[in-house]
Structure formats: structure tokens, C-alpha cells
Write a structure and sequence with these properties.
15 helices; TIM Barrel; 15 strands; Arc Repressor Mutant, subunit A
């Protein structure tokens, strides 16, 4: 089975930290939907008629779609793909978009999982991040979502923000656990070039969290979620039993997926490709039947690096027997040699021919994975 990702590249406002591809000019929304529907039809053979086990609407902010627009989009998917009867269908949303009426519509339309951008339950953090909602709206939308019948909720939180104390971060997690979401995705704030947050940082208007506070926040996160009954199954992701994200797990397990919309990525086991990130060019090219993506065939080393990046992120780890079978003795001996210091220091565990990052290893995962490259 395979996954389908739809990128809706619009937001009502720009958050100060976000560098994802989006526009706050909603005037292009209708022609963009026409182009996305066209790409859905044009690329239906990319997944070789495999049944969809996951559909994920991301962005941007997919909750800018009206009920009519969502219905059109979902109709195009149904006409061109076979959807599993047990498919996980996720929609990202902002708290202020999730009114009771809109939630009821989404539930009836087939969405069975919501990923809600809470980010913080403290208004001072939300103002710094330039979020459109406040903490009151966050609480209301969670209650409304449960009342509408959603029991598979993901909450996004950000830690390591300027001025975010250990106490406030702990309170964020305590409130989260009280709401008992099925899933939590928690990310350390990053200062991406071109964002408002990066602009402020370079002009000394804000002070980033130092390494000690970042590690404190990460430690509090992992301990709190463990106490709350959540499995830390991927670097940034925590789930109640049986509630891991099927869509994102497909990425990490090397399963096929098609990405539709500007800047969306696709992978079919042999090559990967990425759509252009300019809305006007994407719309024009797609509606005229022209390719709107770049593509590369994966070489042996590319596939090895991809396997390092995806497998080590997770609690399932890197399978050494599989690696030796796929890439041979040279690659196997390389990773045995390069991983040895991390095993000795306790940052990697070697269990049943699998390499698995420890809690301390996950905190420096990017450094470790890069060191295991060839």
C-alpha cells in the first residue's frame, strides 16, 4: 500500500518561524485547486495502482479550504485512486479554523485524524511565533474536536523558544497529557533563513535557548511523555499504543508515496522527485499538461544515506542484516566501524543486529547520522 500527500500552499497569516512553502494571498486558491485536481489525475499511475493506506493534507494550512473546496478535492482523489477501507486520512489545521460546524463536516467527509498546530498553551509564546490563535482557542478546538467524534488527534508543540522557561514547557506538556491526544509531535524551534524569527535573531532582538536549556526541554519532554503513557517512536513523535502516524511511518519505512501540489515530494522506491515551489508556475504548468517537477534516480549511495536518515530516526532502528544484504560487506563494515564510538558512549544501542539511538543519541541524531554516511 502507498501514501498520498496533498500540499495546500496557503495560510491566512505568516508565522514568524515557518519556512515551508506557502502564500497568504488566497486569491490564487481556486486556480490552485484546479491545478492540484489536474495533477491528481495526471499522476495516478505513479503509485502503480497501489491502494492508498494514508492520505495527508498538509501545508500551508489545509483548513483554509471551505467545505465545498474540500469536497471537490476529495472527490478527485476518490475518482482516481483506490482508498483502503482502513485508510488513515489526516488534515492539518489551525485551532481558530476548527469551528464546531467545520469539524462536523470534516468528520462526515471522511477525515479521521486531525493534526492541530497548538504550538504552545502560553499566549506570550503564541504572540512571539505570530500565531493567529490564543490559548483559549486551543482548548476550545480540542474540546470541539472530541465532541465532533474525533478520537485520533495529533498536537504540534514547539520547545526551545526564546524566553520559554522549563516551568512553562512543563506546563505545556501537563496540559497536553490532560487532553489525552493520541499523538504528539514536538519540535525544537529553528531559525530558518528568511523568516521573521531569524531576522530578529540576527539583530539581537531575541535570545535563542542555549544548549543546556534545549537539552533540559528535550529531557522534560521525553520523561513527561513516558510518564503519560506515550511511546517515543521517532525523534520528534510520541504516540499512545496503536496510534503512531501511519503516514509519516510510511516515509520512515521507505514505502511509496505521491506528493501533489507545489513543493510536494514523491518517492516510488526507484527515484524521488520534487515539485516546483512557485505557485504561479505550478498552476500554469500543470493546467497546460507540462511537468512541474525535478526528478533523480537513486544511486546505491543515495539509497544507503536515505536508509540511515529514515531508519535511525525511529524506535525500530537500523537493521544490520538488511543493510548487509542490500549494500554488501563494504557498507556493513563501514557502519560497524563508524557506529562503534557511539555504542561505547551509550548514544546507540546494538540489540539483535539492530542499531537504535538512545534518548541521548536522539538529541544529537543529525550529527550521528551524518557521521555514518559514506
Amino acid at each position: 500500500m502507498a501514501g498520498l500527500y496533498i500540499h495546500i500552499p496557503f495560510c491566512r497569516d505568516a508565522c514568524s518561524y515557518c519556512d515551508f512553502h506557502f502564500s497568504i494571498s488566497l486569491g490564487q486558491l481556486e486556480p490552485m485547486l484546479q491545478a492540484i485536481e489536474m495533477e491528481i489525475r495526471q499522476e495516478k499511475n505513479y503509485l502503480e495502482e497501489e491502494e492508498l493506506k494514508t492520505i495527508y493534507l498538509g501545508g500551508g494550512t489545509p483548513s483554509v479550504l471551505s467545505a465545498r473546496q474540500f469536497t471537490r478535492l476529495f472527490s478527485a482523489i476518490k475518482k482516481n485512486y483506490t482508498i483502503s477501507g482502513e485508510a488513515e486520512i489526516t488534515m492539518e489545521a489551525n485551532p481558530d479554523d476548527l469551528t464546531p460546524d467545520y469539524l462536523s463536516f470534516l468528520r462526515e467527509a471522511g477525515v479521521n485524524r486531525l493534526s492541530i498546530g497548538i504550538q504552545s498553551f502560553h499566549d506570550e509564546d503564541l504572540r512571539l511565533m505570530k500565531r493567529r490563535h490564543d490559548s483559549k482557542q486551543s482548548r476550545e478546538c480540542l474540546e470541539n474536536a472530541y465532541n465532533a467524534g474525533f478520537d485520533n488527534l495529533n498536537m504540534d508543540l514547539i520547545y526551545g523558544a526564546p524566553e520559554m522557561s522549563n516551568e512553562n514547557w512543563t506546563k505545556n506538556l501537563d496540559i497536553t497529557i490532560q487532553y489525552k491526544p493520541a499523538h504528539l509531535a514536538a519540535y525544537h524551534l529553528t531559525y530558518e533563513p528568511g523568516t521573521v524569527m531569524d531576522y530578529r535573531l540576527k539583530r539581537n532582538r531575541i535570545q535563542p535557548a542555549d544548549e543546556n536549556r534545549s537539552f533540559d526541554h528535550y529531557t522534560i519532554l521525553t520523561e513527561k511523555m513516558d510518564q503519560g503513557g506515550y511511546q517515543h517512536y521517532e525523534i520528534s513523535n510520541f504516540a499512545r499504543p496503536g496510534r503512531i502516524s501511519k503516514h509519516n511511518s510510511g516515509y520512515w519505512r521507505g514505502e511509496k508515496y505521491l506528493g501533489v501540489g507545489p513543493s510536494a515530494h514523491s518517492y516510488n522506491g526507484r527515484n524521488r522527485r520534487w515539485n516546483i515551489s512557485k505557485n504561479a508556475s505550478y498552476i500554469k504548468g500543470t493546467l497546460n499538461g507540462l511537468p512541474v517537477y525535478e526528478e533523480e534516480s537513486l544511486q546505491e549511495k543515495d539509497r544507503y544515506h536515505d536508509y540511515i536518515l529514515t531508519s535511525l530516526r525511529t524506535v525500530w532502528g537500523l537493521d544490520l542484516k538488511y543493510l548487509e544484504k542490500e549494500w554488501g560487506k563494504e557498507y556493513y563494515e563501514h557502519i560497524i566501524h563508524r557506529s562503534a564510538p557511539y555504542i561505547k558512549s551509550g548514544k546507540i544501542s546494538s540489540v539483535d543486529d539492530k542499531l537504535i539511538l538512545s534518548r541521548e543519541g536522539m538529541f544529537i541524531a543529525d550529527h550521528i547520522m551524518k557521521d555514518l554516511f559514506i
